[in-house]
Design goal:
It contains 9 helices and 9 strands. It is of the alpha/beta class. The protein folds into 3 domains: about 160 residues; about 120 residues; about 200 residues, von Willebrand factor, type A domain (Rossmann fold, 3-Layer(aba) Sandwich). The strands form 2 sheets. Strands 3, 4, 5, 6, 7, 8 and 9 form a 7-stranded mixed beta sheet that branches. Helix 1 packs antiparallel against helix 2, helix 7 packs parallel to helix 8 and helix 8 runs parallel beside helix 9. About 0% of the residues have low confidence.
């Protein structure tokens, strides 16, 4: 019995020592792993906080660490259980050989668990090495991103300078418009002064003419009196001759006065004719400035005989910004199109294109429509109000359709839009995955190059088509710069309508 007790006690002690060593090794491995993970997490937090793949690997390692911690806890609990069993065995010296075999099986299981733990630790070490390699690669990518960020910052600074230059140019155009309005006001004032001066001169001449008539009448009456005195003063010839001589002198003075008055009247009439000519010239100049002023829309000269109006009906044309719907924006666009149509004094024929992800004619299949004034404007308004903004912005398709009319006399295009192109020809398959802003810049550049190289190229004596642009809610400098460049490169003008 004592041998059995000693054997059992020895097995328990051995099992306890093995479990203790295994637990110590596991704890030490866990501490080492925790230190390595802490260093790795610090490096990753400092350099790659936004890299999802590395975070995913760290999450996996953390889960493995948690599982190892759970296993260590399980082993610790198991060690306590074995200690309790050893205590129970010391109290029960009459344990059977079956219990001894069971303890041997438990020992084998513990060894297998320890072996599995060592295998998992080796795997974790390998994954940690892979993570370090990924960290180095991520740092290299981060450096590339920083370089790209520096390039983008320089581009942004250049764009800011370009926007400032555009704003100065717009202010210069506004100053010219104000100077023109001031000149018109000055001409109106000068015209009023000339009219007042002419009226005063006319009144003065009328008074002088009336005085001359009165003087002539008085002279005639005096002459009649002289003849009567000469007739009745035959007996007093000497006195009559003296009186006649005096009357003759007075008559000569009167005739001289009449001649002077007649000369003054002729000079006054010449002055009136000159003033009337100057008045006519000032009136013509005033009407010319007035027509030039009226035939403009916010700084854009309203020209064109055969005109195509291209109207953006993408989803953004019904929004105030990316997320806010604005039911008043599309009616404002429609009214602006109508106002531009009314402002073109030379408009003879027109057509309207609406576009979003594709482009189509608002009327028929693209035949020119004769402009008949307000009935044509109302037809365009009613048709556009039936349109519902939706989808993206394929500006390429709109211009391609518009320039199909160049051979039949197209001379001017008015573009109404609020953004850069977002779809259409101009992207490679690799560029389709770029951000919307990057794709918009590439598509816009492609449309401008297509206009320059093909659609709007001057050839065979055919003049270029003038393209004017009206931008809506264009606070984005990229949108303003694109529309301004597109119009400038095609002999047109650009005006932006900001949010009300």
């Amino acid at each position: 019995m004592l041998d059995v007790f000693c054997c059992a006690l020895g097995c328990v002690s051995l099992l306890f020592l093995i479990n203790s060593r295994m637990a110590s090794d596991a704890v030490e491995a866990q501490n080492t792993l925790n230190q390595q993970l802490a260093a790795t997490e610090w490096q990753l937090t400092d350099a790659l906080g936004q890299l999802h793949d590395t975070q995913s690997r760290l999450t996996t390692i953390e889960r493995q660490r948690s599982r190892l911690a759970a296993q260590v806890t399980a082993l610790e609990e198991r060690r306590h259980q074995l200690m309790a069993q050893a205590t129970a065995l010391s109290e029960r010296l009459a344990a059977t050989q079956a219990e001894k075999d069971d303890l041997a099986k438990q020992l084998a299981t513990a060894r297998a668990d320890a072996q599995a733990t060592q295998t998992r630790l080796a795997t974790t070490t390998q994954e940690l090495a892979i993570t370090r390699r990924d960290l180095a690669a991520t740092q290299e990518r981060l450096q590339k991103k920083l370089t790209e960020l520096d390039i983008l910052t320089k581009k942004d600074a250049a764009a800011t300078l370009e926007v400032d230059r555009l704003q100065k140019l717009l202010r210069h155009h506004d100053d010219q418009r104000l100077a023109l309005e001031s000149r018109v006001a000055t001409l109106k004032k000068e015209l009023a002064e000339v009219q007042a001066k002419g009226l005063a001169t006319q009144k003065e001449l009328q008074a002088q003419i009336a005085a001359a008539h009165m003087a002539a009448k008085a002279a005639a009456e005096e002459l009649a009196s002289a003849h009567a005195a000469l007739k009745t003063a035959t007996e007093q010839l000497t006195a009559a001759k003296a009186q006649a001589s005096k009357n003759q002198e007075e008559l000569g003075a009167t005739r001289l006065q009449i001649q002077q008055l007649t000369k003054t009247i002729d000079e006054a009439r010449a002055t009136i004719i000159d003033l009337q000519g100057e008045k006519a010239k000032l009136a013509d100049q005033f009407h010319k400035f007035q027509k030039e002023t009226e035939a403009r829309f916010a700084g854009i000269a309203m020209t064109g005989k055969k005109v195509v109006f291209i109207v953006d009906m993408s989803g953004s044309m019904g929004k105030r910004d990316l997320t806010t719907l604005d039911t008043s924006k599309w009616p404002l666009v429609v009214e602006t199109v109508c106002k531009v149509m009314r402002s073109i004094p030379t408009l003879e024929a027109y057509q309207v294109i609406v576009f979003s992800s594709s482009a189509h004619w608002l009327f028929g299949s693209g035949q020119w429509r004769t402009f008949t004034g307000e009935p044509s404007v109302e037809a365009v308004r009613e048709a556009l109000l039936q349109v519902k903004p939706k989808d993206d912005t394929n500006m390429y398709a709109a211009f391609e359709k518009a320039f199909s009319l160049r051979a039949t006399g197209l001379d001017t295009i008015y573009l109404f839009s609020d953004g850069l192109p977002t779809s259409g020809e101009g992207l490679t398959p690799a560029q389709e995955n770029l951000s919307e802003q990057e794709r918009g810049a590439l598509l816009g550049k492609y449309v401008r190059e297509k206009l320059s190289r093909s659609w709007n190229r001057a050839e065979n004596g055919q003049p270029r088509v003038k393209i004017n642009s009206i931008g809506f809610y264009f606070e984005s400098p990229d949108v303003g710069a694109f529309l301004w460049s597109l119009s400038r490169e095609n002999d047109g003008s650009f005006v932006g309508m900001s949010k009300p």
